[in-house]
Design brief:
With about 300 residues, this protein is α+β, with helices and mostly antiparallel strands. The protein has eight helices and 18 strands. It folds into two domains: about 110 residues, Probable inorganic polyphosphate/atp-NAD kinase, domain 1 (Rossmann fold), CATH 3.40.50.10330; about 150 residues, Tumour Suppressor Smad4, CATH 2.60.200.40. Bound molecules: magnesium ion.
Length: about 300
């Protein structure tokens, strides 16, 4: 195996990544996988380092950190022929969940680098940046924003998001939105519109149980007009994907979603706040080669 570039965000997962890095380094050494580590020093640095690794001629670039780090590395290697690997060591680790890769299971993730198989994953875009997991606007993004600036400081994993949900629930209500899904135009009050390439967001919520990462389509969910009590009833069902049958939840598959509103609602992609409405989320037609665990995708509607 050729030398790999390992892009590491030691601060990911509030110390988890720093704790796990020696395990990864030891495993790679034991298994004679040569690796050069690049450590991120600030937000956005992962993208810069990944681009540098591509220029240096690495054929495999591996992201070690959370979903935010992975998003940066995706943006750094997009458009190249590089194979992207992923060692989840952040607080959410939503992308890894579809393969049963749990946070902190770094050795299992490392073994994928030599034993996994390469899959061409859809590159999605919003606001000039790529994403591969889940994007959206409204309540989910406001919660993500709250989790980033407050929740993750006091709670770990899903707890950070649950606490942030409760805080945002007090402040938020469904807002009038104009949602263009391919050629269809929907005007409705909604809590959130989610455009999903993979299945999980928010630290373990299965928002899009039947999304496929390589079908050339986004799974779009509109969480429509519900009371706060109604939303509180639906939210626990999102953990297992049970929300999809709720009458206030609408589902479409599309290549492009544009969301606008008179309200400057927050929008997120791969858990990172990308700005405010209006935003467009689209399948680009470009792919990224990722080395992923064998055995396919887990969960509802998964294929073995
Ligand atoms: Mg898809």
């Amino acid at each position: 195996m050729q030398e790999i570039a390992l892009i590491v965000n030691l601060t990911a997962g509030y110390g988890r990544c720093r704790l796990k890095y020696p395990e990864v380094a030891a495993y790679l050494k034991q298994n004679k996988i040569k690796a050069k580590s690049f450590f991120t020093e600030k937000r956005g640095h992962g993208e810069e380092l990944a681009r540098q690794a591509v220029h240096e001629g690495f054929e495999m670039v591996v992201s070690m950190g959370g979903d935010g780090t992975l998003n940066e590395v995706v943006n750094g290697v997009a458009g190249s022929q590089v194979t992207l690997g992923y060692i989840p060591a952040g607080s959410g680790n939503d992308f890894g969940r579809i393969f049963g890769l749990k946070k902190g299971e770094v050795i299992k993730a490392c073994s994928v680098l030599k034993d996994g198989h390469v899959r061409a994953v859809d590159l999605c875009r919003t606001n000039g940046r790529f994403f591969i997991n889940v994007a959206g606007a409204g309540f989910d993004a406001e919660v993500g924003h709250m989790a980033n600036i407050w929740g993750k400081r006091y709670f770990s994993g899903a707890g950070a998001y649950v606490a942030s949900i409760l805080r945002q629930l007090a402040a938020f209500s469904p807002r009038e939105m104009v949602i263009e899904i391919d050629d269809q135009r929907i005007c409705t009050k909604a809590w959130a519109v989610v455009a999903a390439n993979a299945r999980y967001f928010g630290g373990g919520f299965m928002i899009a149980p039947t999304a496929e990462i390589d079908d050339g389509l986004l799974d779009v969910y509109i969480i429509g007009e519900l009371s706060k009590a109604g939303l509180l009833m639906v939210l626990p069902r999102v953990v297992t994907g049970g929300h999809v049958s709720h009458p206030a939840v609408a589902f479409r598959r599309a290549k492009r979603v544009r969301i606008s509103s008179a309200y400057a609602l927050a929008a997120q992609a791969d858990g990172e706040i990308i700005g405010r409405l209006p935003q467009e989320f689209e399948i680009t037609g470009q792919k990224i080669n990722m080395i992923l665990p064998n055995g396919g995708i887990e969960g509802v509607g998964g294929r073995a």
